[in-house]
Design goal:
- The structure is a single chain.
- The chain has helices spanning about 5-25, 130-145, and strands at about 25-30, 30, 50-55, 65-75, 85-90, 100-105, 110-115.
- It is α+β, with helices and mostly antiparallel strands.
- It has a five-stranded antiparallel sheet with strand order 2-5-4-7-6, with no helix packed on it.
- A hairpin with a 2-residue loop joins strand 6 (about 100-105) and strand 7.
- Helix 1 (about 5-25) packs antiparallel against helix 2 (about 130-145).
- Mean pLDDT is about 75; it is low at about 15-20 and about 125-130.
Length: about 150
């Protein structure tokens, strides 16, 4: 049975809206292991209480990435003691688009990883959003190939 043009347009619009909403909204872990009440931030899988819908931040529409920063203070520098910390946060496009880079300077080092999927600045795992998006794309592709 042939589908009407109206049905096809509705399918395309629905998929477009779903994809736009998934791309526009990103969830990231937001925490700093150096903060008193955020010690679990350095865990491989941070506590779920650190999850944040980045749209809820000030200027939330600009956030489209997550960032994981590992910092090391290698020796006492001024008031800073030797230390290692983890900072997880929402991020956005900036001038440096490398997904991974390393910086070092007098007394400290930084390893920065930027990623573009929900919860990606936590442990590696398949997210519900990524799974849902993959399934929707598969169904849409299968449907398009039948026309």
């Amino acid at each position: 049975m042939k589908q009407s043009i109206f049905t096809k347009i509705c399918i395309y619009l629905t998929c477009g809206i779903l994809l736009a909403s998934v791309v526009a909204a990103i969830w990231c872990y937001e925490c700093n292991s150096n903060a008193k009440n955020q010690k679990g931030c350095a865990n491989v899988l941070p506590d779920k209480r650190f999850l944040k819908d980045c749209r809820e931040k000030k200027d939330g529409a600009k956030f489209n990435k997550c960032r994981l920063i590992r910092q090391w203070v290698d020796f006492k520098v001024g008031p800073l003691e030797e230390d290692e910390r983890v900072i997880r946060t929402c991020s956005w496009n900036q001038t440096d688009e490398r997904p991974y880079y390393y910086r070092a300077g007098f007394g400290g080092r930084q390893q920065v990883t930027t990623c573009e999927t929900d919860y990606c600045n936590g442990a590696s795992h398949l997210t519900t959003t990524a799974f849902g998006l993959t399934m929707a794309a598969t169904v849409l592709l299968r449907h398009l190939l039948q026309w």
